[in-house]
Amino acid sequence: MLVKWIRCTVTDRRGFERGQRKWAGLLGEPGFRGQGGGWSRARPGVAHVFAFWESRAFYDSFMARSHDRLAAAQSGTFRDAQAKLFDYRFDVKTGFEPRFTDADVVRIAHCKVHEERVEHFALMQEKVWNPAMAGSPGMVRGVFGDAPGNEFLVLSMWQSAAEHGKYRIERVERLSLRAQTAADVAALAGDVVDLEPGWTV
What we know:
By secondary structure, the chain is of the alpha+beta class. Helices cover 32% and strands 39% of the residues. Strand 6 and strand 7 form a beta hairpin.
């Protein structure tokens, strides 16, 4: 599975949201698995969108054929768009599905990892972070993916910002020490996203 993460700064909120609903046209696309997104809790005007595809081949075919037509509806409503593709590595918790209807919040961690620490980082994700997140009340599901250049994406869905906040306060520092995260990670960027139901495809 391929995970696409898009982040942009919205300059015309109404126009952007109207255009976002046009992405419902993805439903007929071969290999499309699901899409959702919303607004950053920390950065006003920043939108995040997450799309899931069965494979790179299906995604490339869509980009060549239909993407520009669907994207035209949002033209001129945002700036500083960044899109990144990640290959699915494993579930956070179990049974990942690209569904957004039972979550209110998505937490993203985007990590650039030192080359010699990549295997350790992935192992710690599996052995330390995953069990801790999976055992947290309010954590629904998640996915761990990687991209060339030792980049990783951890995407987790939560029932509420309050549940995610409790997990952060109670556990993250202790887990970071146990997983030696500071030694693995060269750069870390994250955000918490309030999901917009109208953006779900």
